Amino acid sequence: MSKPEIVPMFAVPFGFGQYENPATLNAALRRFALEQELTGASNPRPLTQRNAALFESHFDLFRQSDPAIQELKRFCWDQLLAVIGQLNGYTLDTLERLEIYNDAWVHVTRRGGYFSLHNHPNASWSGVYCVDAGSSDADRPDSGLLSFLGPSTASAMHMDAGNARIPPPYGSQMRNLKLEAGRLVLFPSWVLHEVKPFEGTGERITIAFNCWFNLPHG
Predict the structure, then answer these.
(1) Total of domains in the chain
(2) What is d(CA 109, CA 134) in angstroms, rounded to the nearest whole number?
(3) What is the pTM of this model?
C-alpha cells in the first residue's frame, strides 16, 4: 500500500529583507524617531490597546522630507514591489505603473511597552522595519517579540494525540520574530499580530507601514 500524499493546500506569504550596513541610516532614523517622541506628536486616534511605555507617531511618516525617512521608504518600496511582482507574476512595466498609497508611523518602546493583537483593515500589505531592537533582559527571551497569529489557529479548538505535535507550517503555533537592526518584515495586512512587552534597556524603535494599490488602465 502506498503512503498518502500530504499537500500544503493553504499558505501565507511573508517577505524578509535586510538593509545592508544599516548603522548610518539607523542612527539618523533613531534621532528622527526620538525627536518625534519629544514633540509629543502622537497618533491622536489610537485604536489598538497599548500603554504609556509605547509612543506611536502620526501616520504621515513617509510624507516627511527627512532624508533618512525617504531613504528607508525607497528601500521598503523596492522590497515590497519585488515581493508583489513575484507573487502576482507582474512584469517590470506593470510594477512601474502601480500607484502606492500608504500610512507609515514610528514606534518607540521602553520597558514594559507592548502592542496588543490587531490587523490592518483597508490595506493589502504591511511592513515593519527595525531601527533599534533595544537590549532585552537575558532572562526574558520573549521580550519585544513580533508575534503572528496564523489562520489555522481555529484548529486548536480540539487537541489530542492526532494533532497535538504537528509542527509548522501546519501546526497552530504562533510565529514569533526577534527583530534585528536593518531587518524588514513584509506580510499581508489581514494577518493578526502583536508585540510582546519589551523588557530591557534602551529603546525598541520600529517603523511600520500599510499599503494599498491602484493599477491604472487595468
Answers:
(1) 1
(2) 9
(3) 0.94
